[in-house]
Amino acid sequence: MSATGIGAPVRRKEDHRFITGQGRYTDDINRPGQAHAYFLRSPHAHATIKAIDITAASGMPGVLGIFTGDDLAADKVGGLICGWMIHNKDGSPMRAGPHPALALGKVRYVGDHVAVVVAETLAQARDAAETIEVDYGVLPAVVDTASAAGAKTVVHAEAPDNTVFNWHLGNKDETEAAFRAAKHVTRIDLVNNRLVPNPMEPRAAVGDYDDGDGVFTLYTTSQNPHVARLVLSAFIGIAPENKLRVVAPDVGGGFGSKIFIYAEETVCVWAAKKVGRPVKWNSDRTEAFLSDAHGRDHVSHAELATDAEGKITGLRVKTTANLGAYLSTFSSSVPTYLYAPLLSGQYDIPAIYCEVDAVYTNTAPVDAYRGAGRPEATFVVERLVEVAARELGKDPAKFRMQNYVKKFPHQTPVIMMYDAGNYAASMKKALEIIDYKGIGKRKRDSARNGKLRGIGFSSYIEACGIAPSAAVGSLGAGVGLWESAEVRVNPIGTVEVLTGSHSHGQGHETTFAQLVSDRLGIPIDNVSIIHGDTDKVQMGMGTYGSRSGAVGMSAIVRAVDKVIAKGKKVAAYVLEADEADIDFADGHFAVKGTDRKLDFGSCALQAYIAHKFNGQDLEPGLKEGAFYDPTNFTFPAGVHICEVEIDPQTGVTKIERWAAVDDFGNVINPMIVEGQVHGGIAQGVGQALLEGARYNADGQLLTASFMDYCMPRADDLPSFEVGMTVTPCPSNPLGIKGCGEAGAIAAPPAVINAITDALGHEDIAMPATPQAVWRAAQKSVTRMAAE
Amino acid sequence: MATLSMTVNGKPVTATLDPRTLLVQFLRENLRLTGTHVGCDTSQCGACVVHVDGKAVKACTTLAVSLEGASVTTIEGLAVNGTLHPMQEAFREHHGLQCGFCTPGMIMSAVDIVNRRGHALDEKTIREDLDGNICRCTGYHNIVKAVAAGAEAMAGHGMETKEPPRQAAE
What we know:
The structure holds two protein chains of two kinds.
Chain A: H1 15-19, E1 35-41, E2 47-53, H2 55-58, E3 63-68, H3 69-74, E4 106-107, E5 113-119, H4 122-130, E6 133-138, E7 163-170, H5 172-181, E8 184-192, E9 204-210, E10 215-220, H6 225-235, E11 244-247, H7 263-275, E12 279-282, H8 285-291, E13 298-306, E14 312-322, E15 352-359, H9 374-391, H10 396-403, E16 410-411, E17 417-418, H11 423-434, H12 439-448, E18 452-461, H13 469-474, E19 483-489, E20 495-499, H14 508-520, E21 527-530, H15 548-574, E22 582-585, E23 588-591, E24 597-599, H16 600-609, E25 623-628, E26 637-647, E27 652-663, H17 670-690, E28 721-725, H18 742-759, H19 770-786
Chain B: E1 2-8, E2 11-17, H1 23-30, E3 49-52, E4 55-58, E5 71-73, H2 86-93, H3 103-117, H4 123-129, H5 141-156
Parallel strand pairs in B: 1-5
Antiparallel strand pairs in B: 1-2, 3-4, 3-5
Helix pairs in contact in B: 2-5, 3-5
């Protein structure tokens, strides 16, 4: 392995600009003549709009334009879309209400977009917005997930019982039979708390319109600029694709929340033409809390059937998923096909049945957030398995290993065909790292100090690298989920790689360059990665679902292979040999069995000067592209073990140790992969201990700033002990499985299983804040005293 | 309108500006020093940390005109003559950043921690003193390593702490 090759912890190429303050984020972009947008948002969770009076506001200093939903409708600007069709149990399509970018007659959550003011300065836009008079007819709000379906108040007339769909997956009859035959049934009720993604860079947009060419440009904080262009063109109708450029420059984190096509970006690009000026909007943090798509928010009842030997024989789950006030771009796929197919976990479970009711409420839209459905599934499975082991008096690690899938490929009852893995290997390594044998002593030591110590397991699996286009198409996706790559070789042998993936922290500029440098045998500094601009990269599907390695890099490999194949033809002419006799290795084309060879750069030059071959026999130039569509999902899996110590006097839970052993298949850059694991765990710990979006009964968001919503800080977390096992993924040329979401998927049940182990009872919900843990610990202390 | 004279990254600047202008707005919009970021508007996240007269300050809640005559250092001013500051090097070497958005504030806070507490920093001290900076990407694991390494490297570069180390209780 070379110092910059596949498998080396290469330091990141992109870091220089970030550590010197030269990153270029959307809010750093300023266009000549730029004006500023401010969105007037609904203060009510649910209200009719009887009238909007902009007379006074229009005369305010600096105002260039004030627009409402009627203006968008008059310009035939369509509403925002949901790109994944889900069908009800009876085969009928889901019931979706309209989602106008600016409200039409009704607002449905606090923060919903009522009007936009465009002015010379942001302060002037704000001042003007304060003088807009909106006559609201306030309605009761539906907020609670579990009771939304039965509520009298209706969010959308199209869904008269607030139910978007009732959907199911699995083998119902076999599952019921398994439960009838079960020796033991474990039952739990779970709430998967609503989260706010909170990338550190708030969303932002700059819309620009060139009247000379009729071309719109949108600079925006997007994980998938091509999908944004597609939706803004084909569905919302801003402009045809050839007249709309979308640029996603440096993006400061996404975690799912920047996949979606939102109202603000849509309005900014449209308004640029209306006012004849570039229009900029930058979300403040409270706007982000109010209007970024939230994550999770499930209420579930789950049951696990086991036989006399402790073998799992059946699993059934009933979930209600809150989708908020409107269906965001991929919202409907999250509690369905990204959720229920993962309910088999790492276990061989012959019968599984899952029902999901999705509801509208007067809250912010809910969509994919790091893990998207898979953390929710893992929380169900791993809490259930842990409680079952406790009820059966079995060691939780041994109970898991007894039930692991051991032969591959393995077809689950819920769609997925697991292709490769060695789950026991990860468990054994994790047990070693955490020193499982010593836990008894550590618990006794804690008890002597008046503390409660617990250990919690999480054996997670995820379906990543999403995904085969035909497969997702059959499940309702409106798009294909391939990825594209183009490899442009310059005449002196430097290389530009254009990818449809988007990097917003993942380090693609390094990892992708490592791959190409390794394959072509050229220095890593000779490779540049280009992404995030629809004028440069022709088409792509973007970055989410841990897909950029497995799918994006596979496309690059295909394009590189084509470059090498073309290079061999060029080299054959130059070296006056038969093409079949040309080998390519270590950056050189060589004639087999001779010392005649041509280095990669010289071959590129020969391809462009085209002196040694006839242009009719071989096209000049060296540039190749590829679209790669995977053959299967990938299945990263692993075991995380969390050890906590609780102070029953204060309720503070301290994470003492964390062992993470993950199987991501082959790894290009272990430094970056470990960083992804660390960050994922932190978000999972945030969900388990600290974070929770709270609405009151009126639909007011009580957690709308970092002062009210508890983000994980450095002193909330330990250092993590990260290990890896490797079973290469058989379904892509690099054997990569993906690593971006693993930590966030694995962590919440590991934490809660550790806390419940410490407490000695199961009565704790997420987030397990000090107050909640203190209350729960009083029960434990009372019980301990009684014993 | 108000007038303001200060030194930013060693260069004198003067401006006439709306007295409501925040330091971060002045830096980003007037001086086009966009390395200083706004992540929360409420002094919680620390993406906007700069040094004012050698001490860490959150630029999102500081009025620019309150700093008449001050010397301000931003992330753009940390490297000297093209040579990265040891703390910048440490963040790159230890993969202490992912999306890069919190990074300028993190680095400025990290240098301030060393200035306040000296070069030998244990993990507990670093984690407690990073309390004013939020990172959503890294889980802090590699940031903590970077700060410890950067602190040591600053000693190696002869960067004396600017004031005697203080204790947390102060």
